[in-house]
Amino acid sequence: MNGPRMAGAEEGSGAGMKTDVVSSWRELDDAIAEASRPRDTGHAHSAMVFRGLARASYTHVSSLSRLRGDYAALEPHLVRNFRKYAHRRRPGPAVWDWLALGQHHGLPTRLLDWTFSPLVALHFATASWPRDDAVLLGVDCHGAHRLLPEPLRAELDREGALLFTTEMLAAVAGDLPSFDRLSGEPFVAFFEPPSLDERVVNQSSVLSVTSRPEFQVQEWLEDHPELWRAWTLPPAVKAEVRERLDQAGVTERVLLPGLDGLAAWLRRYYTPGTAEDDTQGGASMSGADADRQEEGRMGA
What we know:
Largest sheet: 5 strands, mixed
Oligomer: single chain
Mean pLDDT: 87
Strand order of the largest sheet: 1-2-8-5-3
Distance between the termini: 31 Å
Number of helices: 13
C-alpha cells in the first residue's frame, strides 16, 4: 500500500484524518480484507462497519449540525413533530425507532449512516463525482463499544451482540436525554435500524449515534485513530472500482429498490464518466434529496 496522505483540506474526510491512497481495485480489496479480519473479538465475522464518501472534501458530521446556530436545542422539536405528523408510519415504540425512520427519510438528526458491506459503502463512494477523490472509511465497532459507559457495555454483553438494536438501546436509555447522561465523556454507539423497507435490508444498514448532539463522529475519529482505517480512491481507481461494482450488480437498482433507484442506475450507466455535477446518481442511501450528499452523508 502507498504511504498515507492527508485526505481533504478544510472539510476533508476529516480535515487531517490520515488515509492510505490505493492504486488499484486489487490493492483496495486486499487492504479491506486485512482490516476486516476478526481479531479475538469473540465474534466469528468482521467487526468493521463502513462508510463511503464520493468526495474527499466531505465530512463525517451530522445533518442536525448542518442546521447551524443552536441546532442542539432544535433536536427535541424535530423529533417531537416528526413523530406527531408521521403518526401513520409507526416504526416501533422506542425513540430510537423514530430516529431511524427520520434519518431514513432525511430528517436532520445526530445519526450517521454506515453499512456492514464495504461494497455498499464503495457504491456510494463511486456513483458520482468521477473526477474527485473518494474515501472509504472502516471503523472497528467492537473496539468502539469497549469504550462505552458500563450500562451500554453490559447490555451488549448480556445479549452477546456486536451492535445494538433499537430495543437494546431503549432498555438502557428510553430517551435521548437519558442516553446523554450515561457518561460525562463523549462516546459513539452503533446500532442496526429496524427493517423499515427493502433499502435498509439490501444496504446492510447500520447507524451511529453520538452521546451529545454537539459531538460529532468526526471528533471521535480524531480522538481514536487506532479504531479506524481509511482509504483514498483517486479518480482512476474510483472508475475501476465503479466498473467492478457494476459487474457485480452492486448498483442503485439493487440498493435503492423502486423506480427512483432504477432511474438513477440508468442515468448513471448510460452517461459513464460524465456525471461531474451529478450528486444524485445513486450516491445517497436514502435515494432522495441530492443536497444531503453535500453534507458528507453516505446514507442520506
